[in-house]
Design goal:
With 134 residues, the chain is α+β, with helices and mostly antiparallel strands. It contains seven helices and four strands, in the order βααβααβααβα. Strands 2-3-1-4 form a four-stranded antiparallel beta sheet. Bound molecules: uridine-5'-diphosphate (UDP) and magnesium ion. Residues 54, 59, 63, 93, 111-112, 114, 117, 120 line the site of uridine-5'-diphosphate.
């Protein structure tokens, strides 16, 4: 059975471009309930910890620097089938491959500065929620 929680981050590019409002509106319109939300600023060690699964990837250092480049908004969300439905709502990692109408298609700048994070499994959703909200 799939879980009912997921976790998202409005990333520095989207926050800076004042897309937080439109993005949150899309999330709520899609039926997600906000359970927790906070403006946050990451430093490099904390960004590295959050993205530890990617530590051996060629983009890791850049990704961490980018995630520390400005404020972010961290949000705990609730909905039936949350993880899968949220990944559909945000679209592919690379906005060039994202479906029309998805958040990344509408608001992302690049594969790195791609507007939002979305958990990839129920287990990781809970780990990420605990990372920011405990
Ligand atoms: N990323 C990047 N270059 C890549 C792939 C990913 O900069 O070639 C960044 C991008 O910000 C992405 C994050 O690393 O959202 C995590 O990558 P993942 O493969 O987990 O994509 P996601 O789950 O966010 O779609
Ligand atoms: Mg991922």
């Amino acid at each position: 059975m799939s879980g009912n929680k997921t976790f998202t981050i409005i990333k520095p590019d989207a926050y800076e471009a004042a897309y937080s409002g439109p993005i949150i509106e899309k999330i709520e319109s899609a039926g997600f309930k906000i359970l927790n939300m906070r403006l946050e600023r990451l430093d490099n060690p904390r960004a590295g910890k959050f993205y530890a699964v990617h530590k051996d990837k060629p983009f890791f250092e850049r990704l961490c620097a980018y995630m520390c480049s400005g404020p972010i908004i961290v949000i705990e969300l609730e909905k039936e089938n949350a993880v899968e439905d949220f990944r559909k709502l945000i679209g592919a990692t690379n906005p060039e491959d994202a479906d029309e109408g998805t958040i990344r298609k509408l608001y992302a700048k690049s594969i790195e500065a791609n507007a939002v994070h979305g958990s990839d499994s129920d287990e990781n959703a809970q780990i990420e929620i605990n990372f920011f909200f405990s």
